[in-house]
UniProtKB/TrEMBL annotation:
Pfam families: Aminotran_1_2. Coiled coil: none annotated. InterPro entries: Aminotransferase_I/II_large (IPR004839), LL-DAP_aminotransferase (IPR050881), PyrdxlP-dep_Trfase (IPR015424), PyrdxlP-dep_Trfase_major (IPR015421), PyrdxlP-dep_Trfase_small (IPR015422). Residues 34-385 form the Aminotransferase class I/classII large domain. The keyword Calcium does not apply. Transmembrane segments: none annotated. One of its GO terms (molecular function) is pyridoxal phosphate binding. The keyword Transferase applies. SUPFAM superfamilies: PLP-dependent transferases (SSF53383). Its cofactor is pyridoxal 5'-phosphate. Keywords: Aminotransferase, Transferase. This is Aspartate aminotransferase.
Length: 392
C-alpha cells in the first residue's frame, strides 16, 4: 500500500493536546490501573430531557431528512436572537448577524480562515485554547499571544503588543471565561480590547464557550456584545456544548458584525456544509429553556469547585478561588515543571491532568484540572493527590 505524505500544512500542525491526552489515558487504562481523567472538557452529564424529546420528535419529520439550508432554519436564527436579547439585552438581526454551525470548534478555526490574510497576525493570549494557534497556521497567519500574568488576574495588557505585530494584525481573538486560566472578563477588559481593535482597525472575535459558567452560582459572565459598539467591531462565538450539556450534539453559533458573519458563512458553505435539521430543532428547545433551568444545569460545577478548592486548601495548595469555566488552573509546587507534575500525578496517583504548557509557553508552571469527572472520582483523585504531600 503506498504511504502518502501529508500536506506541508498538516506536517506543521502539532498533535492536538487533547487527542494526545486521550491516547495517554488509553495507554494507562490498558495497563490495568484505575486512571481518573481530570484532563477532559466534556460535561459528562445528560442533556436536558426537553432537548432530547425535541430531537426525538424532529428526527422522524421527513422535512429534516432533506439537505438543510446553508443558513440554518429561520426559526433557529430567531430563537438565537431572542436568547441574546433575554440573556444579554443584545439585539441581533437574524438574517445578517447570525451564523450556525457544528460546534464552536468550527468557528474557532473558520473565522480566522475567513478573515485573515496570509502573513498577518492572529493576536490572542498566552496561554490560550490550543486550537487558536493551529487556526492561525491554517489561515497562513502568524500567532502572537499576549502574555497573561496571575498578578493581573490573567487580563491581557494590550499596550504590551509590539507595534510591528499590531500593525500587521488581522484579528484579535479572546476567550473569557478563559480556558485554561479560569479568568473572567471585566467590562474594562472588553473596553480595552475594543479600543485596541478600533485603533488598529481589526476585527475582534470573542469565544464565549463558558458563557454560563462563572465562578459561583448567580455570577453571569460578561458577553462582549453587551459592551457599546461591540457588535460593530466583533463577533461572539457561542456553543451549546457546555451551557446545555450538549457536547456530543455539535451545535454552536456566532453573532455580531455582519461583514464578518458574511465572510464566515461563505467559507462555511464550501468547507463545512450544513447542520442536521433535527439538531437545529433541538437547539431551539435548548435556547428556549427558562434562564433558571439553564443555571441549574451548571450548578454542579459550582458545588464541585467549592469542594475541590476546600480539599486543595487542606493540602496548602495556593489557588485563586475566583475562577470561571469548569476547570481549575493550579500553580505547580516548587521543584516541578508542568510536565513533571503531570507525569508525577499520572504515575504516582493515576490521575491525568492537562499540563499548562500545552496551552502555550505562558502556561508553564501550571496544570489544569477539570471539574467534569463525577463526584466520587473527583473525591478519590483528591485523596490520591493529597497522599503525595506536594506542599509539605
Ligand atoms: C475555549 C473553547 N472554545 C471552543 C471549544 C469548542 O467547543 P465546541 O464543543 O462547541 O466545539 C472549547 C471546548 O472545550 C473551548 O474550551
Amino acid at each position: 500500500m503506498p504511504d502518502f505524505s501529508a500536506s506541508p500544512l498538516v506536517e506543521q500542525l502539532e498533535e492536538n493536546l487533547f487527542s494526545a491526552l486521550e491516547k495517554l489515558a488509553a495507554q494507562i487504562a490498558s495497563s490495568e490501573r484505575t486512571l481518573i481523567d481530570l484532563s477532559s472538557g466534556s460535561p459528562h452529564q445528560p442533556t436536558p430531557p426537553a432537548v432530547v424529546a425535541a430531537l426525538q420528535v424532529a428526527a422522524v419529520q421527513p422535512g429534516n431528512h432533506d439537505y438543510p439550508s446553508f443558513w440554518g432554519k429561520p426559526a433557529l436564527r430567531e430563537a438565537i436572537a431572542h436568547f441574546y436579547q433575554r440573556q444579554y439585552g443584545v439585539r441581533l438581526d437574524p438574517e445578517r448577524e447570525i451564523a450556525v454551525f457544528h460546534g464552536a470548534h468550527i468557528a474557532v478555526g473558520g473565522l480566522p480562515r475567513a478573515l485573515l490574510h496570509p502573513g498577518q497576525y492572529l493576536i490572542s493570549t498566552d496561554p490560550c485554547y490550543p486550537v487558536y494557534r493551529s487556526a492561525a497556521l491554517q489561515a497562513q497567519a502568524r500567532f502572537y499571544g499576549i502574555p497573561l500574568d496571575a498578578a493581573r488576574q490573567f487580563q491581557p495588557d494590550f499596550s504590551c503588543v509590539p507595534e510591528e505585530v499590531a500593525r500587521n494584525a488581522g484579528l484579535l481573538m479572546l476567550n473569557y471565561p478563559h480556558n485554561p486560566t479560569g479568568a473572567l472578563a471585566t467590562s474594562a477588559l472588553f473596553d480595552d480590547a475594543l479600543a485596541f481593535v478600533k485603533h488598529w482597525h481589526i476585527p475582534l472575535v470573542h469565544d464565549f464557550a463558558y458563557a454560563a459558567i462563572g465562578s459561583h452560582a448567580g455570577e453571569q459572565p460578561l458577553s462582549l456584545l453587551s459592551r457599546p459598539e461591540a457588535s460593530e467591531w466583533g463577533v461572539e462565538i457561542y456553543t451549546l456544548s457546555k451551557t446545555f450539556l450538549m457536547a456530543g450534539w455539535r451545535f454552536g453559533f456566532a453573532a455580531g458584525n455582519a461583514s464578518m458573519i458574511a465572510a464566515f458563512k461563505k467559507l462555511h458553505t464550501h468547507s463545512y456544509s450544513t447542520v442536521f435539521g433535527a439538531v437545529q430543532d433541538a437547539a431551539i428547545a435548548a435556547l428556549q429553556l427558562p434562564a433558571q433551568e439553564m443555571a441549574q444545569l451548571v450548578a454542579v460545577y459550582h458545588q464541585r469547585r467549592r469542594r475541590v478548592l476546600d480539599a486543595l486548601d487542606a493540602m496548602h495548595w495556593p489557588v485563586e478561588p475566583h475562577q470561571g469555566t469548569f476547570f481549575l488552573w493550579l500553580p505547580v509546587p516548587a521543584g516541578f515543571s508542568a510536565q513533571q507534575l503531570t507525569e508525577h500525578l499520572l504515575y504516582q496517583a493515576q490521575v491525568l491532568v492537562a499540563p499548562g504548557h500545552g496551552f502555550g509557553p505562558g502556561g508553564e508552571g501550571y496544570i489544569r484540572l477539570s471539574l467534569t469527572a463525577d463526584d466520587d472520582n473527583l473525591a478519590e483523585a483528591l485523596k490520591r493527590i493529597a497522599a503525595l504531600k506536594l506542599f509539605s
